[in-house]
Amino acid sequence: MLYIIEDMINGVLMGSIYGLTAMGLTIIFGVLKVINFAHGSLLMVGMYAAYWAISLTGIHPYLALVIVIPAMFIFGYYLQDIVIKPIFIAEKNVREPITVIIVTTGIWYILDNLALLVFGPQYRSLSNNPLQGQMLELGEMFVSVPKLYGFITALVTAGAIHWFMKNTLMGRAIRATSMDREAASLMGINQYRIYNVAFGIGAATTGIAAVTLLPFYNVFPTVGVLFDIKGFIIVVLGGLGSISGALIGGIIVGLIESVGPQFMTATWTEAIVYGLFLIVLFVKPSGLFGQKHDW
Q1: Domains of the chain, residue spans
Q2: pLDDT tens-digit map of 217-244
Q3: How many whole angstroms separate alpha carbon 142 and alpha carbon 65?
Q4: pLDDT tens per residue, range 42-70
Q5: What CATH number belongs to 2-283?
Q6: Residue 66 C-alpha from the chain's centroid
Q7: Which of 9, 73, 85, 111 qualifies as a cystine partner to 204, CB 3.0-4.6 A?
């Protein structure tokens, strides 16, 4: 029984990090109304940015947030402005331009192969990692300290995004655009600038997730693919466009992956995750916690 409780705790911690990786995806969908297939590649870029920032300066892994967050925001902002915005302008009468999905898929392949060309296929981990292998002892149970930090970071990030969307002028403009872009434009809101900001926030959130992963996870050119698939599952489970839903959906996946192997093989555990994904998709396409307006 003690082992199950320990697995549940670690499942919640890892699941919250899964949820954090999916938050950027759900923010972008909530505003732009398109699925960003390059989401995993943005996570990979964030992990490389954090890796080199830490390796070259020797700072604490979490201090890399000071560098990674603004860098990823700028990267996401201009990626949307230069590459994706022209499609929205060309298809301004289409609510959910399918062409954007094709373009983000192309961005995914370009970024992954560019990383492979520049950094090579090697798996890299932090050499000066003060969090490596640290465990918190709770009686006879052991909890991963890096994952605990990730859990706290996920909660703080979700709370900060929710506060930003509810209480700031830019946040209200983003919400208005996500609900009705035409009406928002009539009210004087520049919808294309809002798209840029929303994409930047989504990329910055992905950068936060990258920093939380780096203390206990290797970085390599295709690392984003692993979390990309989980991100899509989590967003569908929690509800497209829902910040809290992404966090809860991630925790559900984390619990299944952590507790499931106590009773079955890892293959069956993955099957349960995909089975739950399909059930929710058929029974409640808006997700377990999806609402008409998720902000």
Answers
A1: 2-283
A2: 999 999 998 888 888 899 888 887 788 8
A3: 27
A4: 999 999 999 999 999 989 999 999 999 99
A5: 1.10.3470
A6: 18
A7: 73
